[in-house]
Write a structure and sequence with these properties.
Threonyl-tRNA Synthetase, Chain A, domain 2; 3 domains; four-stranded antiparallel beta sheet; five-stranded parallel beta sheet; 19 strands; 561 residues; single chain; alpha+beta; Ubiquitin-like (UB roll)
Length: 561
Amino acid sequence: MKYRYRGGFLEAEPGSTYLALAKKVGNDYPAPVILAKVGQDLVELNKTVPEETFIPGTGSEAPEISFITTADSDGHRTYERGATMMFLRAMAHRFGKRIEKLKLEYAIGDGLFFSVKLRGGEALSDGSLGEVRATMERYVREDEKFEKSKIPTREAMELFHHHGMTDKEGLFHYRLSSATNVYRLGNYVDYYYGYMPPSAGYISVFDLRLYEDGVILTIPNRKAPLSPGSPAVAKKLFGTRRDSTVWGENIGVPTVAALNDALTRGEGRDIILASEAYQEHNVGQIAWKIKNGGRRIVMIAGPSSSGKTSFSHRLSVQLNNVGLKAHPIACDNYYVERSKTPRDENGEYDFECLEAIDIELFNEQMTSLLKGEAVDLPVFNFKTGVPEFPGDPLRIGRDDVLVIEGIHGLNDKLSYAVPKDDKFKIFVSAETALNIDEHNRIATTDNREIRRMVRDARTRGFSAKETISRWASVRHGEQKHIYPFEEQADVMFNSATLYELAVLKTFAEPLLFSITPDMEEYPEAKRLLKFLSYFLGLSCEDVPRNSLIREFIGGSVFPVG
């Protein structure tokens, strides 16, 4: 088979795999190659190259091939899945049936947190974890192969029932396809949502350590794919995720299968109401903390599509409820004139950098308000690109609170003139407590990407293709301007709900299906469509109008677009 590759051709021997092709060109890439990309389709390296599909001289072209490395998002996810399967197999080898619970909960920094519970109260020790690490290192030395096979879905359900993986058995109950891919590493069999590396030798960089009641498996960061990732744990974020996960387990909805089961029993409205009540309770607790702390300015930040705008309004309602008078203010109204907006390395306006905000005006007005002076706040006109002053001055009293929302809210450079004792900082993010199953987590970024896609189509007329094409840039800005400050927050608020992906599915799927195989965004659209296929759809009819989810699907009582 002949492929077009970087202006030339790359030829595969009959019966060879994509792995053989990858080895020929590995030096062309700065990081290890872990997947192939044929046209716009991702392909595992263990897959056999097909027979010649084009006829020279007839005008048809050889397909184009490129390769995905561990520094790419798809490649990094593949590395994560491979490391996860190796760890789970090594744990099964060391502890066998003494494992009562072993669940991949969520990512935390460069690590993956697994909750672990052994039968009979047995404690996991540094010594036993060292044996698990040594077993994983043996898999790497022996370069054990990840073997994929496609079997009837009913057979897969029976297989996982036999191995006690009832979460996967329940997941496949809702699978429409007649066949399912399962993976084998030695004598260990499992299912994974997404592609896998060719062998354990590709997963040579990792670390294990005990943390809380489980284990953190650390893997390389995408920016340094050949080095161990940072062992640092964002403790406040970890605690927020832990609280949400425990709550999801307590109401009996820890996985997608459990959610689907609840929907088939007609309990969708109950799940919605429980999720909204849990969030409202948390918002109310934050309001009391602000009141008891005597803070006068609330600074709210969070990544794209975290729901921080709706949160700022819900918090304002709760602040009013505890005897304060809240005034929501959006930092976007403090943008500098469009002509003064900095540009990024591509010459595009950089609306996410701190310099895009009129910091001097912001601090001048905030300090004036705190002194009791009347201030005419700006309203930025996004059509003309200039701020306007409506002539409706604000003056605040002793019980008034300014609720300020924007991506730089936790960065003290934004509010340098405001005394620290006057500021209460809140970080908002969508940390879903739901997992696909016990070995496949739902990434926070996937949740937010789908939220943004639905909102972009509704409020800005953007296609799913446009949202996906911008997402990498959005994520880059978040890593630079938002996440470095998250642990400085006084509190964190989880804006994710257990039910939302079942609701968002009905809005997102038509948008994603509009992306065709010839488009660069097709692999991501295909991945998200497969992800959403695990969920049963849920009508938005019972979603309250003050819900954070209304910011994305429409119908909110708040001015959120």
